[in-house]
Amino acid sequence: VLFRSLGRVAVVRIAGPATRSLPPFAGWPDDLRACVAGAAEVVDGGVEVDGRVHPLDEDAVRRVIAGADAVAITGMFSPQDPSQELRAAAIAREELGADVPVTLGHEVAGIGLLDRENAAILNAAVRGVAGRVVDAFARAIAERGLAAVPYLSQNDGTLLGREQARALPVLTIGGGASNSIRGAAVLCGLAEALVIDVGGTSTDVGAITAGFPRESAVGVEIGGVETNFRMPDVVSIALGGGTVVGAAIGPESVGARIGDEALVFGGATPTLTDASVAAGRIALGDPALAVRDWDGVLDEVDRRIADAVDRVKLARGDVPLIAVGGGSHLVADRVPGASEVLRPRDFDVANAIGAATGLIGGDAERVLDLGADRAGGLADVAAEARARAVASGADAARLETIRVDEVPLAYTTPPLTRVRVRVAGPPVG
């Protein structure tokens, strides 16, 4: 069903002739590639890491995009200089019209050609269905007479404006997990902690750093495709309140049907909620209906949760663990690696609270020459991040710099460094 909702994408990679040995869609699962892949070609052009620009083959761009339903354009080192991506996009709109969705790699992800190209293709493929969802959301608000400006949660715990979400829907894929992490931090008033969000089917463990979800430092695989757009650093396990207990614990779950199927509610399916009620971790339904042999069940739950928490920690020492979500009763009062387990009021709606208190963010990434005007380069990157936040609806006067990452690039002459600046602030008004 999901594959039928995806668009077929024409792919232009501006990086020839150097990268033709590994064409677009390399490494994609066969079924997804068959659904999404349109014409694809590596055309001459591109930008070198030191800023040198190779001429763009505009005729080749026109040939690849002819008749396309959607277009993904990715240039070599385009976050450094997006001019050729922008020119190719202008050609696409001249040839295909303004209504054909065009995704540019530098708008979706950072340095890293193939992963950025994959992210751009996925974004182009889902833009049609994502646009319908976003428009329906805005229409529902208007039909109810609400004078509210709609925003969507994005992967880094900040918000996107409606038009930005329609153009860059892949940036909202991890919004659910990010909302829970940020909402847990808001409920406890903490800027540094671990967060465990237990639902009906799965458990997510992440971290809050400086008040925002910690981002993954490695590429993220979506549908079997390697990408490099920003995503929360989350460990997920198949464990939730509706997890079925039989010969094994999960991964099957009754999910939202728990109110009908769990033993304590008069159902016939043993679940982890039943085990939790029997052990006194939560009072729900009729405890007499959950009387059975639960030997070792919660011990295994505790072991899996402790393992997930350990995988999320990046340093030695115990830190607070905030337990949220409707199934968080599965989390024991003591968890190895956690200094304490916090159970805030309104724990079951942490996700909604995270979304409601989200700030509007913007970020930018570039490679700078350390031998040139470093301060001026940093200011330019920060200005680009601020401009993106303002375009999404942030109040320019109240923006704050949340994070500046600087990673020197080895073995380059002149010496280069990769810089990323992230800003966030409340919406206008």
Protein model, in words:
With 429 residues, this protein is an alpha/beta fold. It has twelve helices and 21 strands.
**Main β sheet profile:** 6 strands, mixed
Number of helices: 12
| Poorly predicted runs | none
Query: What would the principal axes of the Cα set say about the shape?
Result: globular
Structural class: alpha/beta
| Overall radius of gyration | 24 Å
Question: How many strand units?
Answer: 21
Q: What portion of the residues fall into strands of 2 or more residues?
A: 25-35%
Could you give a short description of this structure?
32% of the residues lie in helices and 25% in strands. It contains 12 helices and 21 strands. Strands 9, 10, 11, 14, 17 and 18 form a 6-stranded mixed sheet that branches. It has a 4-stranded parallel sheet with strand order 2-1-5-6, sandwiched between helices.
Q: What characteristics describe this protein?
A:
single chain; 429 residues; alpha/beta; six-stranded mixed beta sheet; four-stranded parallel beta sheet; 12 helices; 25% strand
Give the helices and strands, then pairings:
Elements: E1 9-16, H1 30-36, E2 37-44, E3 46-47, E4 53-54, H2 58-65, E5 70-75, H3 83-96, E6 102-104, H4 105-108, H5 113-143, E7 151-153, E8 159-161, H6 162-167, H7 175-188, E9 193-198, E10 203-209, E11 212-213, E12 220-222, E13 225-227, E14 235-237, E15 243-245, E16 249-253, H8 258-261, H9 272-278, H10 297-312, E17 319-324, E18 338-342, H11 350-356, E19 360-369, H12 374-391, E20 400-409, E21 416-425
Parallel strand pairs: 1-2, 1-5, 5-6, 9-17, 17-18
Antiparallel strand pairs: 3-4, 7-8, 9-10, 10-11, 10-14, 12-13, 15-16, 19-21, 20-21
Helix pairs in contact: 2-3, 7-11
